[in-house]
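for the writeup, i need someone to sanity check this before i put it in the appendix. the sequnce is what the collaborator sent (i think, or maybe the updated version? ugh). structure was predicted straight from it, no edits. if anything looks off just tell me and ill rerun, i have time this weekend
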Amino acid sequence: MSQIQERMKKLGIKQVDMILELRKRGIAVQPPEMSSIIRGVYTYPKSKRVLDEVDKILTERESH
């Protein structure tokens, strides 16, 4: 399990919730694409942007 998946699980955030939060922040990502990005399979430039934003979201939630 990736570090992102572990952090999401600890916070009780589902992948669908994260996708919706990313959409609010202007990043459109489809569920299969999100899954591939989190697992490290999808490594195109968009994945870096998505992972950076996911990290920001998780950090914000962890600090509350």
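Residues 45-62 form the longest helix (18 residues). The chain has one domain: 3-62.
thx in advance!!
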